[in-house]
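Could you help me review a protein record that somebody else here produced? This is what I was given.
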Amino acid sequence: MPWSHYAVVPTRDGNAVVTVDGALPCVETEGGMPEMLTAFEPLIGLPTYLRLAARARRGDDVIDLRQFDVGAVGDAVPLGDADPARLAPPELRPALARWLAEQQGAPVPEHRPAWARPGWLAEAERWVGAPLDLVRSWPLSAVLRSARGDWFKAVFPLFGGEPAVTEALAHAHPSLVPPVLRIDPTRGWMLMGEVRGTDPSGAPPATWAPALRTVAAIHAAWSGRAEELLALGAQDRRVGSTLPETLVHGDLNPGNVLLEDGRAVIFDWSDACVADPIVDVALLLFGVEDEAARVVLLDAYADARSLPRPELRTIFAASEANAYLHQAESYRAICDALAPDDRWWFEGEEELWRTWASDVLAGRRPNRGT
């Protein structure tokens, strides 16, 4: 799918916006963040990336507006003469108008992430002690990598417990989560060592069983330790459950797992909470249509928890809808905690998860295409 990225970059004096041929600089890529930044370099140099301000679909294409810190090259239009109608496609003009207003003194939304503000990257690099390359940035977190191979992550306040929770997990289960080298819980920062493994997202779902064995071990080890977990910063999401409530990942999907030699490493504990462990089981199985694969995965969890397989299946059937309602509440809380101009990222997610919970209660498999 083609992606057209438009860059909005202030000049160094802050009085103009960088342009190319009378419009915002634009590149097309189909890759990730590093590829996009490389494509922009001939047009705007290497300014610090700040945030994705808007995204829209135009037929089969996607267009978006990317904000950067000050640029070093390119033509420019004074802010007072900058007309969104001349500079950007119609779908991106409202976001561009908000940016222009901010450059001229309008208040920046209070809850805009720290990494989306000028000067943050330099502060993070001083803390890490090495230059950092951006891997991913969105309203919930920023992930960067050093030349040493270490991974730096910053999270927004709702997920502020992730560094301390991950550090505790790394001490208790050093082979099951990434190694944690350093944290700053006040700022929501964490530096992790490199982890090797294969992303299982494209593999047959039955091969994800090691992820459920890993999370089962963590569930068992942290059962009955709610106060300890809450003190670390895990969210309290207890609403009652058949299995003892414990530390739950809260976003367990193949993209947060690495597999190697029959074992799994689980990362991205942003949604860590004290809750029903079936939440993690249901989220990993979500969208798995192959009934045989679902049985393999449920049996892997049951065996790892020393539960009779039929008993676990009964518990899962009774708890699956509640797991999706758990996700609906997660997205409601996320949207409430975001700056208003970032809430579009998760528009409709709460309603989707409530729909999928209703599907289960009606005896239907949830349809991701709903």
User: Anything to note?
Assistant: The chain has three domains: 3-103, 114-192, 205-361. The first helix runs from residue 33 to 44. The longest strand covers residues 49-58.
